[in-house]
Amino acid sequence: MSDFEWPVRVYYEDTDSGGVVYHANYLKFMERARTEWLRARGIEQCALRDEHGVIFAVTNIELDYLRPARFNQSLLVGVRVLQMRRASVHLEQDVRLADDPQATTDKGTLFARGRVTVACIDAQAFRPRAFPDNVRREILGDR
To answer: Which of 3, 14, 16, 106 does the annotation list as catalytic?
Structure first.
């Protein structure tokens, strides 16, 4: 189970000609969930750049497509920290069916699961840089 979940509705624009979520859109859903996960922990990415001189960059993604999500379904996109390193964080993300009374699939049905590595990098040099201490604490939930 995820530590954080963000709701997403599947719009027509998210689907392919078969009426299912186009594969690349799962990455967009996951990106939004990561951004909102950070925001929920008090981390604004613009402030990171402006105050600490760092930005986040995805360096690796592995994504397993398990079953198709469809137009108008209500989804939950989860985020969970697997491992925190000096200048990177390894996350697990999943895309599940939310509690949707119109759904023809069971609540919690897993559509996709991914493993994402996000690096903390210097905003000018684009080289790895250690997470600021307060950011590290917030990511790990040590408030």
So the answer is: 16
